[in-house]
Amino acid sequence: MAAEAVLKKKDLKSDQEVRWCPGCGDYAILNCVQGVMADLGVKRENMMFVSGIGCSSRFPYYMNTYGFHSIHGRAPAFATGIKVSNPELSVWLVTGDGDGLSIGGNHMIHVLRRNLDINILLFNNEIYGLTKGQYSPTSRLGLKTKATPFGSLDYPFNPISLALGAGATFVARTVDTNLKHMAGILEAAAAHKGTSFIEIFQNCVIFNDKVFDSVSDKKVRDERMVDLVPGEKIVYGNDHEKGLRLDGYHLEQCSADEAGVWDPSTPTAGPSMLFADIDRDATLPTPIGIFRQVERPRFEEGVHAQIDHVTETKGPGKLEDLIYTADTWKVD
Amino acid sequence: MTQTKEPGADLPLQQQEKVVIRFAGDSGDGMQITGNQFTSTAAFVGNDLATLPDFPAEIRAPAGTRPGVSGFQIHFSSSDIHTPGDAPDVLVAMNPAALVVNIGDLKAGGIVVVNTGNFGKNDLKKARLEVSPLEDGTLQGFRVIEVDINKRVADALTESELSPKEIQRCKNFYTLGLMYWVYSRPLEPTLDWLAAKFAKRPALVDANQTALRAGFNAGDIHEMFQGRYEVPACTELPAGIYRNILGNQALALGMIAGAEQAGLKLFLGAYPITPASDLLHQLALYKNFGAITFQAEDEIAAICAALGASFSGKLGMTTTSGPGVALKTEALGLAVSVELPLVVVNVQRAGPSTGMPTKVEQTDLLQSIWGRNGEAPIPVIAASCAADAFDVGVEACRIAVEYMTPIMVLSDNYIANGSEPWKLPEMDKLPKFTAKFRTHVEGETFLPFARDENGVRPWAKPGTPGLEHRVGGLEKEDGTGNVCYDAENHEKMTHLRQEKVMNIQRSIPELEVEGPESGDLLVLGWGGTKGSITSGTARAREDGASVANTHLRHLWPLPPGLDELFGRYKAILVPELNMGQLWRVLRSEFPQHNFISYSKVQGKPFMSFEIENRIKTILEQ
Predict the structure, then answer these.
(1) Is B6 part of a structural domain of the chain?
(2) What are the pLDDT digits (tens) for A248-305?
(3) Nearest CA in chain A to B243
(4) Residue-range domains of chain A with CATH
(5) Exposed (0-12), middle (13-18) or buried (19+): which is B501, by Cβ within 10 Å?
(6) Is B4 inside a domain boundary?
(7) I want to staple A99 with a disulfide (CB 3.0 to 4.6 A). Which of A54, A156, A263, B331 is the partner?
(8) Whose CA is closest to A105, among A143, A159, A60?
């Protein structure tokens, strides 16, 4: 093998046939992730993909890296054990709205508060796909599915608000129809030291087709979406002529000139929360981009620092000393 | 103090072979500390010993009530003993509730020491008593020593700067001092312990030491007892270095030792649960062994993190009790499917559901062996006593690493919180089973699910170039590990996983029996019942019964040679603290033999006499 061969996108494709439905948004995401990962400067043997159960969770099988396809909802716990055990690994967790926010909701909030240096990709298609079309914890009120023939009565989660509330240090949103944007977000997530949470609007062509079209369709997206870019003005519109700004606790539309400059690192997550709360049925544009980006100590770092500290203070453990303590007696 | 000679030196000193004392009081009275101190001193003297705490699940049940009674029983002896004793010779009762809850267990003619200071009208009411048991004939047939410990402690500590309330907290050390006098125990170990324990509060050291000495001196001054006793050091134990150990402590040491012997770092994922939490507490201390302990958000996350750690090349472990195992079950199935080492500890407690968290039962055996969806075989082993828990911890790591498998380790509340002398292992004789990681591709491509002669797959951890592979819970193609729904492949993989686990039998020794090599009856036990079975069977043998006993450590797969062993006895008695779970396994595995179940499900261990009586009843039929 050539010394330090440069990784190509094709090196990250596994020999397994990809088996998502034709037209599924997952293909675009897989393609984008493979491209970004190849350029990260991380060795392939140090790449680790972890997932739970669901359509999105088949992801690790298609990556020619180390991978663990675990059980429903528990990927954050597996990722925790893996990352704490080997902090050198670049750990990517792939989950969906059902896997990550319903059965695995508890693990999700705890992994976010612990702030391990891992990256979470939450494919949100607002539906259970693998079990063939039941409503999920992000499905809209009134959605008719096999399980809700008369419409869903279940108020949905907003994944971004949830992540912010759980104390996530990097929270972003992107769309499966805008790969350039997605690549930028993935790169920023990889660079972030701490848990990165990325919600990806992902179209389920079979059970919830076009659910994001009102904001993400190419024809409307410039008018209906706003990209939150740290340090840049919050502008949108076909001619970048519109903007958003904060007026006290309210977000308001303004001209591009009057737009606020986006700061995802404010001491509280309050401003991020205001943007997260914009519903896609609202008149204001749906935000994508980086909602939150702050530094906080990482769990695995603390674990190993404590081990090093105790080892330094007490000296490396010796099993014999642990067994043969002071309070022994001898029988002849 | 004007006295120059040791108090009580004039009284006759009688030798006793063994004594059982039960300390009982309110859960705030410090009975566990009292018992533990008596235990440390017995170990210091060189007695063989066995202890059993009995405390309520509530941290502080209402003071003075029956549910709030906390007890600690110690059996100490100059001969080899196996249990904390059937019936106490001495009961120390700090209040009416403690007295009425425990008096039924006291041996006929036994001594009961009563703290009369807590027998006021209000105290009786809290214990739901209308008449004082000191006056209603309850104590007939026992030797009753009445002491107003509340007053004695207050008198002894008149010069202490502590508040009256704090002074009353020294009652347990006065009581301990009294019992030290009766059994001629040295005070130094406890005096030293107090000095170290309260080093930052000299007033507390002084008060408790004074209370201890006052209790000790009172034995003589007040002529409460007719004599003093001596239980000499035990000379029957095998030669070696010993220390007293609790079952949970021994198991935690076994787990860390097992990881060391495998050349791996331990990763413990755990969630707090009675009676297993002490394993987490203890392993959290061993950071200088590189051990990582992770208190997860729930039982499921605990096992999943541990399994993730094993994928990363650590020795993943998780510790829990029955309800926790129920939650971990799906992840355990995944561990079977991905074939990674994982040590799962179940410190059993009484069920079902929350059951009785501080009481003992052996009701999770079938859950351990069979309790998963799909054909998901795992090995199961069980500790038989506190000291044995160390060896079982090491053995669990050996099997997990050598066979790339999850393993269930069963302990129970009785083993976990009971203590006994542990003959310390010789370090160079601990088993070695260094884990082998695959470091490069052998042959054309890396096959993560290829197998060696034992049916074991290779372990390749992330970070190893060229061995990138994926594992998961979907059925795998033989060899490659790729997702595969082929019918014949599934059947083949099911058999391969099963055969791998059954191959463990080759590494297990045959059972040894105590007693006759053949005869009328074999008593076969598993887990924490070993002490009662050993003592009860020995007594039946002394009375001429043709009975032998043996004990299983490996419950799945079972050790080799059982068919031949069972064939040498007319019947096999299987005592269990459940409804006959091992009995069911044995009947299905060895239908040709005659197994008799002896079931007890009271949240309490077997008494030796119960085993003895059952043996005699069976042999009389």
Answers:
(1) no
(2) 899 999 999 999 999 999 999 999 999 999 999 889 999 999 999 999 999 999 999 9
(3) A328
(4) 7-211+297-332 (3.40.50.970), 212-293 (no CATH)
(5) buried
(6) no
(7) A54
(8) A159
